[in-house]
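Apologies for my clumsy wording, but could you write out the amino acids of a protein and the tokens describing how it folds?
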Amino acid sequence: MSERHTYRVIVRGTWDGLTDEARARLPAEAGEHGLTSMRFTEEGSLSYEPAPLKHFSMRFVVVSDAADGEEMAAAIAEDRAESVLKRLGYGFTGLRSTVTDLDTMKVNRRPASRR
């Protein structure tokens, strides 16, 4: 069995080709997609500023084979983002990802004398 790693992936993009309905719905629902809703989940959490309605980000947790690496985690998260955004009827462009491998992340702890 291959080793599995947990990745946190932030997918960023730009709204594009939004319908009039989407342009009305996004600002109305912005309170549900602000700073307090930003969590890393398997389904993804969407966040954006309601004005100007330009960019968005989605946060995902991806668990995959360590051998596939960060590129695969990014591809999986971007695929999930596309699926969610299309299902919601939101047009977008320019998806790009930032990936953190939680299993290889180094945690710097302060020495007890500096607490």
About this structure: The first helix runs from residue 20 to 28.
